[in-house]
Fold this sequence. Notes:
Blueprint: E1 3-8, H1 12-23, E2 29-36, H2 41-54, E3 57-62, H3 64-77, H4 88-107, E4 111-113, H5 122-130, E5 136-138, H6 140-143, H7 148-157, E6 171-174, E7 179-182, E8 211-218, E9 221-225, E10 228-229, H8 232-245, E11 250-256, E12 262-268, H9 270-286, H10 289-308, H11 314-326, E13 332-339, E14 342-349, H12 357-360, H13 373-378, H14 381-393
Parallel strand pairs: 1-2, 1-4, 2-3, 4-5
Antiparallel strand pairs: 6-7, 7-12, 8-9, 8-13, 9-10, 11-12, 13-14
Amino acid sequence: MSEVVLAYSGGLDTSVCIPLLKERYGFDRIVTVLVDVGQPRSDIERGNNRAKQLANEHYVIDAREEFVKEYIFPLIKANGSYEGYVLGTAIARPLIAKKAVEIAMQKGIKNLAHGCTGRGNDQLRFEAIFRATDCRVIAPMRELDLAREWEIDYAREHGIEVPVTRDKPWSIDENIWSRSIEGGKLEDPYFEPPEEIYGWTKRPDANRKAQIVEIGFAQGVPVSLDGVPMGGVELIEKLNLIGGEHGVGRTDMVEDRVLGLKARENYEHPAATILLAAHRDLEHLVLSRAELRFKVMVEEAWSEMAYMGLVEDPLYSDLNAFLDQSQKRVNGSVKMKLYCGNAISVGRQSPDALYSQDMVSFDSQTLSQKDSEGFAKYHGFQARLLKIKGLKRT
Length: 394
């Protein structure tokens, strides 16, 4: 009996994969694995119901805590962002793939499948994990070169209820960190997204009163909200709700995919926007100028590897080692003002601050201003020397 483990979301692509794996590939048993990384309960329930109807065996794995601690917290330490994208879908894919591999190993199954297309990045993120095993990798959407309209018709022929239509064929992916919306008319970069595509954020409204939230950090990780200690999952969920009320965290961008294609992408990520802005602000209070300058290079390399799904690469571990060391002094809190789609740092404090109000104050005499004269004489010295030499030649 031939068996395959399918990384399953419950959406159109992976639901269509189940009958395809039987009809086109001849598998006798389909084992589906749905990994909970913070998507809506309704999505999980719908996925479970579909899997029970279509698959031979189904597993649901609650990986929310692991996702936040092992993937999102390192992302926050790295100020993770790829071309302005906060890496929500990208950072979740390797974890989902790993859970599918674990089920396959437990059951002795040597076939792994995913529902990714051949045009996007997700195929690479899944297969970077899948191909580290001795399993065969199956990608029906890519291998059969399927179009989305064909999938919709095929799903209906097989009694699979699909929420998408030809008029609203949005492909939506959600986890606790972000919500991505793409497809249909959104593929036209000149098309203005309709308000209906947004599910987490309200339209920014200047008449809505501003709100201030205070984020507490310990070693670069958020640990409290408005002075109340809180676990990562709960804190992110609350900030998504609070930030969404103020329209914080909408991104409409043209993104460079790994394959070289440019793609128009729309994202919602209120908590991510707030936490990354607060974390970056706190770093400027506690890290040295040299650390900040070097860390920018580390962040760029880390973000690109996360975007590509290369979390098993040795360099990824090396970068995380530096980030962990750099975050030991990133302790304190940041006040964030949420207003009309913006998240603005308006105050920060830390026991490890390199800031000295006494030394920098215009009213302080702790440091003598005269002491800086010698430094000023040599500041820009080489440029002045070149200018002098040039004047002498003329």
